[in-house]
Amino acid sequence: MRSTLVATWTLLFGMALLMLGAGLQGTLVGLRASLEGFPTFVAGFVMAAYYLGYVGGSVVAPRLVSSVGHVRVFSALTSIASVVILMQSVLVEPVMWTVLRVASGFCFAGIYVVAESWLNDRATNTNRGQLLALYMLICYAGLGGGQLLLNVADPRGTVLFILVSMLISIALVPMALTAGPAPDFHVPGRFGLRELYRTSPLGFVGVATAGAVSGSLFALGAIYGADQGMTTKDVSLFMAVAILAATATQLPVGRFSDRVDRRKVLALLCILGAVAAVAAMLLADRSPGAFLVAVAAFGGLSLTLYSLSLAHANDYLAPEQMIAASSTLILVNGAGAFVGPLIVSALMQAVGAPGFFAALAAMQFGLAFFAAYRMTRRPAVPAAQKTPYVGTPPGTSSSGEMIGHATEEILP
Fold first, then answer.
1. CA 89, CA 161: separation in Å to the nearest integer?
2. Cα–Cα 20 to 30 A to 200, which of 3, 18, 87, 246?
3. pLDDT for the residue numbered 130
4. pLDDT tens for each residue of 205-242
């Protein structure tokens, strides 16, 4: 592991910088949209547009990497992403921001594909799981830490936009200075949506719902906070607590789900997450401390749904199918992350800020009921035949090549 860390520390450092920028960018843009007086649904559509670009980038980026190589694609996309956030600081208008958010999502999808495939190439069969766990912690710490950078300057100005641009640009440097040749890259094969649903209905619906929940949290959390009358400091703390709590829950949830029926774990987490969402909704105006506890519980539970649904889907896939299916799962997750904020923002505009947590609770209750239904349709996968759970941050592409190779190496 030590030799692998020596070979990959620049990549991990670059990803830490990138995730700091990504974490700050999402909350900053959402908060600025509220401060500029964008109607809630319009702001929600603007924020959701990121995931539309993300879906497109997930499809196109592997082909770009295969054609022109990792370094060129990474350099081009980070440069564009850096310019896009600067343009948002001066072109404060919903239509322009929608276009720029699509571009930003496209760029980040490609950046994740490059960085994660490169990291996967540097891992070995014996330490790939440890490296994935370290990568997960770096991603969550970066996303959560980026929220706190919101307090560096006034979100109404340009300083924070410049800071995001700097973090994205500097993240290019470690990648460009990484020693050794770029890895070989192969475009994953196709695994159709119908085939994926037939193979694992709950995995399909779970990944989509997880995308809707996490996409709504990341896209609309700052808008919810502004509607609740939170200060910038309060918004940053609210978002940081929700995201960082997931670092403490991934490993226990994973170990538990590897030993018992994942459908039961998924249903339980959804019910508990929904209860936490309802508690946060009721406590928002009553007790700031209790509200943050409820938010931590919600984030810690809800942000494990993606990894859990992914692991459940992989339980029904042959090792040779996993990489191809993972690209389809990314599309399903991205589609959920696009649609979710549209639904939630429409409800928020109709009933006010409480609609945020009410909608998130409803999504998780719905997934819990579907998980219970699926338990009546198919027997549980024996523990010995399960693929290992791998904690995966929502919004990255690491359900793809990294996890596919990890599971291929563990399964007989």
1. 6
2. 246
3. 67
4. 999 999 999 999 999 999 999 999 999 999 999 999 99
Burial of 181 (0-12, 13-18, 19+ CB in 10 A): exposed
Contact 279, 299 (CB under 8 A): no
DSSP assigned state of 183: P
Is residue 372 exposed (0-12), middle (13-18) or buried (19+ Cβ within 10 Å)?
A: middle
Structure tokens at 264: 């039961």
Local confidence band at 412 (pLDDT 50, 70, 90 cut-offs) = very low
Whole-structure pTM value:
0.87
CA 220 – CA 365 distance, rounded (Å): 20
More reliable by pLDDT, 400 or 370: 370
C-beta separation of 303 from 394 below 8 A: yes
Q: The dihedral of CA 202, 204, 210, 212: what is its sign? A: negative
Find tokens 């859990």 and name the residue: 308
CA 127 to chain CA mean position, Å: 24
Read off the pLDDT of residues 270-291 as tens digits, 9 standing for 90 and up.
Answer: 999 999 999 999 998 889 999 9
Q: Which of 270, 220, 243 has its CA nearest to residue 42?
A: 220
Let me know: does 329 contact 213? Beta carbons within 8 Å. no
How far apart (Å, rounded) are the C-alpha atoms in residues 279 and 364? 14
pLDDT 10s digits, 245-267: 988 888 888 888 888 888 999 99
pLDDT, tens digit, 9 for 90 and up, residues 68-77: 777 788 888 9
| Distance from the first to the final alpha carbon of the chain | 23
What does the alpha-carbon distance between residue 167 and residue 43 come to, in Å, rounded to a whole number? 24
pLDDT of residue 409 exceeding 50: no
Residue 380 to residue 193: CA distance in whole angstroms: 23
Question: Are the CB atoms for 246 and 143 separated by under 8 Å?
Answer: no
Rounded Cα gap, residues 308 and 304, in angstroms: 6
Report how far residue 392's alpha carbon sits from residue 332's, in angstroms, rounded to the nearest whole number. 15
Contact in structure between 163 and 149 (CB atoms under 8 Å): yes
Count the Cβ atoms, other than its own, within 10 Å of residue 159.
12
d(CA 216, CA 229): 19
Q: List the chain domain ranges.
A: 2-180+188-410
